[in-house]
Design a protein that fits this description.
Blueprint (H helix, E strand, L loop, with lengths): L17 E10 L2 E11 L4 E5 L6 H8 L7 E6 L2 E2 L5 H7 E4 L11 H7 L13 H13 L15 H15 L3 E5 L7 H16 L3 E5 L3 H7 L2 E6 L2 E6 L1 H4 L2 H8 L1 E7 L6 E8 L4
Parallel strand pairs: 3-8, 3-9, 6-7, 7-8
Antiparallel strand pairs: 1-2, 1-4, 4-5, 9-10, 11-12
Bound molecules: adenosine-5'-triphosphate and magnesium ion.
Length: 276
């Protein structure tokens, strides 16, 4: 049993209501996300899916206040995120970026300790509470034995779990994970997805970017499908994922089956549209 599941060890979390209002995002005059109105259900897992370049990571960056809007707003509990101090935003919202770099020689434990940074200040230095949060996160990500290894000596999957542990240690009400399982073997994928489920069960608002539609259907309560910077479908995965959606998103013909254990949609790609 991970420590996250142990009763009383995880601090109670105040649910966060995260939404966007007519949100426009882009880079240097180029618009990549258009007039997005989105509400991320509190205490639930939302998966964002869509083709490469459709704006998923850009959106996640904006939800974490690391990427400013060109228009509209991100609202946290009804308040414009841009008006929050960065440290206050970091106490409420944790982001695992798609690509994350750390200085040479940094160990897993150093990185995970860094996740506690937003909780410190002039009057609040490193505390037993921080140490406990780091221990919980290392345990949850199955990294206790590797904790003192430098990141640059790890495998890609071990490194990915270290970054996930850093975000978990932040103990934020909103947890945003950009392709958190892309480098993980099947066992560690399920471990991370179970952890994601636990985080939502504790009342956190969890948002994942995933490429595998069947995994998204199995592990998310709410699915947001994006194409060219717009939401094209949204809702419970079983209602949203159809061969028509797969064709619209990826230009791929597919058969959608039911997972025999969970009953959730399983997408079997057949061919690209227009090919034999
Ligand atoms: N720093 C940047 N400067 C300029 N353009 C960018 C920058 N980052 C992303 N883009 C562009 O913005 C668009 C959306 O990129 P984004 O990374 O949000 O896509 P994505 O949906 O996360 O794709 P992927 O599935 O490949 O990760 C793309 O056209 C991309 O080329
Ligand atoms: Mg991306």
């Amino acid at each position: 049993m991970s420590l996250l599941e142990a009763p009383g060890t995880q601090p109670a979390v105040e649910a966060a209501d995260l939404a966007t209002e007519a949100l426009d995002l882009g880079y240097d005059g180029t618009r990549v996300v258009h007039a997005l109105d989105l509400r991320l259900p509190p205490g639930r897992v939302t998966a964002i899916v869509g083709p490469n370049g459709c704006g998923k990571s850009t959106l996640l960056g904006a939800l974490a206040r690391v990427h400013g809007p060109q228009g509209g707003a991100v609202l946290l509990d009804g308040r414009d995120l841009a008006t929050l101090r960065p440290r206050d935003a970091a106490r409420r919202i944790g982001l695992l970026p798609q690509q994350a770099d750390a200085p040479d020689g940094l160990t897993i434990r150093d990185l995970v300790r860094y996740g506690r940074h937003p909780h410190q200040g002039l009057l609040r230095q490193w505390s037993p509470e921080d140490a406990a949060a780091v221990h919980r996160a290392l345990t949850a990500a199955d990294l206790l034995e590797l904790a003192d290894r430098p990141l640059d000596t790890l495998s890609g999957g071990q490194r990915q779990r270290a970054w996930i542990a850093m975000v978990v240690a932040q103990e934020t009400a909103v947890v945003l994970l950009d392709e958190p399982t892309s480098a993980l073997d099947l066992g560690h994928q399920l471990e991370v997805l179970d952890l994601v489920h636990d985080l939502a069960a504790q009342g956190r608002t969890v948002v994942l970017v995933l490429h595998d539609l069947s995994t998204a259907c199995r592990h998310a309560d709410h699915l947001v499908a994006m194409c060219e910077g717009r939401v094209v479908a949204e809702g419970p995965p079983a209602d949203v994922v159809t061969p028509g959606l797969v064709r619209e998103l990826y230009g791929v013909e597919s058969v959608v089956l039911r997972d025999p254990t969970s009953g959730t949609p399983v997408v079997c790609p057949v061919r690209r549209v227009g090919t034999r």
